[in-house]
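sorry for the late reply, my laptop died twice this morning and i had to redo everyting from scratch. anyway the thing you sent over, i finally got around to it. pasting the sequence first so we're on the same page, its 137 residues, then the predicted structure underneath. double check i copied it right bc i was rushing
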Amino acid sequence: MFLRILAGSKVKVRNSVFQANIGNGIHVYPAGGAGATNSLADIDLGKAGAGNAGNNVLQTVAGSDPNSGAGLCVDLPASAGAQALAAVGNQFANRDCTATDPGALKTSTSCAGAVDLGVTQATGTTVTVNTSTCTQP
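ok and here's the structure:
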């Protein structure tokens, strides 16, 4: 199963599995149309605090049905400016982000290559993704 979310949406995702997709597990797309906002503020894939972890499986290792793109892909245009996405307490390929010091995620700027996290951002846009204890190089 995969999930497409338009930036500006209000959505909360918990305890779901996104694997074995041709493409990305979860892909956050730019909102379209006149007056559309590209805010990530109301997209909740997991937040800090007791009972708020996402507990979503977003990517798996090779041989275990990984997504061919990214587990989580965020794609925003220059007009989005600075944005932050809450994705605390999820699982990526061999990384449980609810654990203490699970290590670094495999990241990309193109959402390709079976990475954990892909962020494609236009010049002028800064996107940060809070993955909790999982670090990003």
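The mean pLDDT is 94.
thats about all i looked at so far, will dig more tmrw
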